[in-house]
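Neutral metalloproteinase: structure tokens wanted.
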Amino acid sequence: MSTLLTTVRLRGERGVRAEEPTLPTAAAPGAANGERSIYDCRNATNLARAVLVRSEGDAPTGDVVVNRAYDGLGDTRQYYRDVHARNSIDGAGLPLDGYVHRGRRYNNAFWDGRQMVFGDGDGEVFTDFTASLDVIAHELTHGVTEFTAALEYRNQSGALNESISDVFGSLVKQWKAGQTADQADWLIGTEVFTPGIEADALRSMKAPGTAYDNELLGKDPQPGHMDDYVQLPDTEEGDNGGVHINSGIPNRAFYLAASGIGGRSWEAPGAIWYAALLASGAQDDFATFAATTVAQAATLYGESSSEQAAVREAWAGVGITVGAAAGPTSTSTPRSVDAVAALTSAGVAAAVPSGEPVVGGLAPVVDPRDTVLAALTAEVAALSARLDQVIERLSR
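Answer:
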């Protein structure tokens, strides 16, 4: 209930910020290169009252969570700087603020449009969320997407938004470890589950649908091919058209491209995907993005190059054909997955804001017969509305 209520509020805040006009970044003196600041919420939820505990260049503290957040922000910043010549999230040195120990037993980590926020987990299902570098990089990459393609968080453009974060989350992890494509595990969030939970990760880019399968969480619902594309309504109850589910399709396409090209995935494959992100529009779907990656591969490595061929074959491997002249087409007709369709008809809400890898990745596997959760979700919405009214009265 606490996590659901919080995510409802965060979605509203993020939506308002997304509608605000984008202004040039005005970096403060000494804060033009993504300088880091880590704040301790001390288990409270009001970020404004958090205490600054570590700034850029400070020595490590005695709190491992603070240090992991600091290092994770730094590693992601350094990756984008060294590999893609990008200065912080917005490309103009946006300072990186991280907030740790948010709330009590809070099962999430998220980018809220301005800063990174980390929960400690409940210690039963999830551990501290600073433990996973690819989760940190995933969330910060939502910021990169926000300042570039601004992919709408709905249907296929929303699933692309999620996939882009998984792609670069995985690349940051591989870059940090110095792994080649064949050495990487291609798993997202392997560290966030407690030892008592039988699950490999939140998602698998290599084999979508295999990250977890247990009695508590159910089975990973992600498809890896357009044959299994999940048709969901563009509503909160439908996960905004299945953004956390269908992202498995472009995820696998990137894995296939990286494996086909070989070597270090952040080099040619990462360069192609990054260039495609910069060249994409807010409403691009899978087929459009596929065509953009093929075009960018030609721009970077030459028409008919081995890199371009690998990218084209990768998309074909997930059911999307990019022709030499005719453009992209899907080789199959998307169909609904019965269990997920039943979940939607039962009114169960996947109540998560954009960019939240944990709740968003797992909520759709809730037993569709569990109508109790649907009732709780409705109650959360009512509580949120009442809370908004109270806050409005207090602010007068």
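The CA atoms of residues 262 and 333 lie 31 Å apart. The longest strand covers residues 36-40.

Cheers.
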